[in-house]
Amino acid sequence: MPEKIAVVTGANKGLGFAIVKGLCKEFKGPVYLTSRDAERGNKACNELQKQGYNPKYHQLDVTNEKSISTFCSFFRSQNKKIDLLINNAGVLFLNDSKEPKASQAEQTLLVNFFALVNFTEAILPLVNENGSILNITSSSGHLSRIPSEELRKKFIDPNLNLEQLTVLMESYLESVKLNRDVADGWGDSPYVVSKVGVNAYTFMLNRQLSDQGILVNCFHPGYVMSDMTRGAGSVTPEKAAEGALECALQPAGGGLYVWHNGAIVEWDGPDPRGFIDGKSV
């Protein structure tokens, strides 16, 4: 029987690193740690090896078509398929970032949405039937974070396809360029829009792959302490990884939006930050 394989993107540090470490303990098969920077990725693997774990490494920049192609070619040449994919790579501009809003929006959607989609679509033929895909998302990805009811209806349309979703996300970037993002009902956060897009893609992909037994879910890990947040946060990467691993290794189904405490929440329901996290929203 072929060995099972797991792949984690953006895994040389933070939550991705902690997820790889946990998979090395719990996943029955090779675990591939990937990163944009090969030197940092190999260093992360060496650190885990010193702790008694044995991850494998492969360079992967999800924003680079050549890197994606090389990664997919590697698995095809080895006649290997993937049983678990965790899309963790992401970017966040903090409130004090100096970059213009349009630049922040373009980069945020490029990494968090478009690159995730492009890579996932490229690797799909190499995902085993009855496999699993987990997209790391955020509380920002809850549909209630989009102010416009009209836009929310577009996102939850059960007939929404990838081409239409892509056009929708591109229309947001156009609104930002025209300085109309708030007026057009998108709100003022590129990160929110990027993660709402990820969640919409998650549910769409789960519907598409259901006949192959592939489960696709998204997981909000909480406010994770990381370089991306400059150390701010309320949960360690190790603690956040515990929830991600449970969601990845023991999914309760497909097309689920799972909160950091394991609760399955309605994407288009009330904002869970209020009734789960006890925050005023």
UniProtKB/TrEMBL annotation:
Pfam families: adh_short. Keywords: NADP, Oxidoreductase. The keyword Protease does not apply. GO terms for molecular function: oxidoreductase activity. PANTHER family: CARBONYL REDUCTASE 1-RELATED, CHAIN DEHYDROGENASE FAMILY PROTEIN, PUTATIVE (AFU_ORTHOLOGUE AFUA_3G15350)-RELATED. Belongs to the short-chain dehydrogenases/reductases (SDR) family. This is Jg16761 protein.
